[in-house]
């Protein structure tokens, strides 16, 4: 099944989960891969929340331990692929060079000081939000936390097709050339499905709508900044956008616990 093979391509490329299969990398299967970006996010989110729930509910360990397990799972299951993009993009942006030089810096396999500092800030902020949420976790908290990778992968897919590429080679260009606007038609269907599921949880549907609105608002911001700073999309910038989206959504979920549920 081409849809399933497209999903397996995503798992092979964007996670550390072993897929011991030689998958076709033709345009048709890569297009299915882009179409299933949000499904990959749901799988990731499901794994994260299973581990999170298991530590909180089935072990004697503390909330700090559960927060750490969830935080670490986000790094290990993805293999840090998007964090690599975040660091490369940070090094390039904070160099304050012209576009061509920034693209050259992103291609450099070495990590500079700005990349290290930026990933420390990112991971520290994410852990803070997760720990604070864990202190006042509700049944719907698991559901919404599990949707964060879903929305970040949705943003990744839209940016991939709506922002022109800065390079003609690389991982981003490979997926970008295989897909088209029709690929995105499934994305609203996915959102409606998770919204319907959210109705089953007390007030979780409000969080789903909030996540969808915030993600949609971030799209034009990302597009304008990526084109203005780098001249177009690259694989590293897709990874950085994914990490940035997840950080913002963790912050939204943190605030949601404080202000929306009183």
TrEMBL record:
InterPro entries: CobS. Pfam families: CobS. It is found in: Cell membrane. It comes from the Bacteria. GO terms for molecular function: adenosylcobinamide-GDP ribazoletransferase activity; cobalamin 5'-phosphate synthase activity. GO terms for cellular component: plasma membrane. The chain crosses the membrane at residues 6-25, 37-55, 61-83, 111-130, 142-163, 184-201, 207-223, 244-261. Belongs to the CobS family. This is Adenosylcobinamide-GDP ribazoletransferase. It comes from Mesobacillus foraminis. The gene is cobS.
